[in-house]
């Protein structure tokens, strides 16, 4: 796809946005009220970002955003990384069938990773006939066109692309937070870890051009954003396939130079591609946050090999040592899968061991979930449920213990904190985030939201702190 095609596509979509605007306006006049829209987002930061783009289009069309699922346009942005995520979506759909009976004007759209699986689309066609629009991960920029087609045809409209090389820039967007924003730097994944469905539903790796990324961040800063999260399934392999030769570390260096930007985060790093250059750039930057999410998945070399992770526990520990030597106060977090096919007690103990060695600030632990179409789904030696549950509980206990100890270490220190929100339980408190990504609650007022204050960490409760502001 060349630049002219992408520009033409943007023009086409603007045409459909106009057409839908007219329709929404007419409907609104008939109903004598504005039409409302809502997005229910499942899964990761990528999906959250996609939902902001989709809501951006809906607002441009004339819808007004609401939190209620009883809206005129309800969008489900789905996740399929584990089976639980799929089950939740079907649960919601069951409930929606009744709501739609009461509001026949309602339009229901399904998108995201689950829709890239043909058997899911078949199930929706057969059992959830009241759904209006089904699309996938590659064509979210087409939402206005899909709505237009649905109105024209009067039938469920399905448009799923297998893959794409197209990146459409400059679409409308409705950001959830005024002061922080995710920024896609790449899409897709080429790693094919044997348990993971992402490469099948998000397609091949494609990087955005550095100039487009920088331009977007500069604009965000002008709009009041102080923190960006650079998003990609595997940010460390950023730059592959671009005309311009550039590494992720180099991109970070450029983002670091943007005036007015105060904090930079990124997600997710694959241990196999972590470079010394990246560690150096992080170390020398005042803006890049002291947090690295580095999924280990398993501590056993045998399992890592079958998972197709392309690193060993020794290599991983070596990287962690380098990172801690360069930035002693950094918070390292991880993802771990328990019960991968063939995982023995010995393999599991290797995972427990690496957790004790790295001493993660926090870790997301997942029970292995069989995803149809992945190599691991065909492996015969699936681990019994009760064995997995027992290992999962032991691992969680260890992680919580270490995590609490690591959190304690920062008590008494003064840390810059970006104020994010009013505390959800006590509105005299504000909630903010340390560079290390940990939350802290302290006395404050809503006008502080979006600004950075120095906060003294007084005590740790589980995985968050209570603090006091030491300086305005
Ligand atoms: N089962 C369990 N966890 C999985 N993840 C990805 N695929 C699966 C699966 N099939 C986890 C990995 C990944 C995180 C986003 O989700 O730990 O890092
Ligand atoms: Fe899945 Fe592995 Fe790609 Fe992460 S790196 S999205 S776990 S295939």
How many runs of DSSP E, i.e. beta strands? 19
Distinct ligands:
5'-deoxyadenosine, iron/sulfur cluster
* Average pLDDT over all residues: 95
Distance between the termini: 50 Å
How are strands sequenced across the largest beta sheet? 2-1-3-4-5-6
Structural class: alpha/beta
Give start-end ranges of low-pLDDT stretches.
none
- What characteristic shape results from the CA principal axes? globular
Beta-strand percentage?
15-25%
Helix content: 25-40%
Count of individual helical segments: 13
Radius of gyration: 23 Å
Summarize the model shown.
By secondary structure, this protein is α/β, with parallel strands linked by helices. The chain has helices at residues 3-31, 45-61, 83-102, 118-127, 143-153, 198-202, 210-222, 248-256, 276-284, 301-306, 313-326, 345-358, 385-408, and strands at 36-41, 64-65, 73-78, 107-112, 133-135, 157-159, 180-184, 186-187, 206-207, 227-231, 263-267, 291-293, 331-338, 362-367, 414-422, 429-434, 439-443, 452-461, 464-471.
Structural features, described:
The chain is 38% helix and 21% strand. The protein has 472 residues and is of the alpha/beta class. It has a 6-stranded parallel sheet with strand order 2-1-3-4-5-6, sandwiched between helices. It has a 5-stranded mixed barrel with strand order 15-16-17-19-18. Helix 1 crosses helix 5 and helix 8 (248-256) packs parallel to helix 9. The longest helix has 29 residues, at 3-31. It binds 5'-deoxyadenosine and iron/sulfur cluster. Residues 81-82, 195-196, 295, 297, 335, 337, 366, 368-369, 371 line the site of 5'-deoxyadenosine.
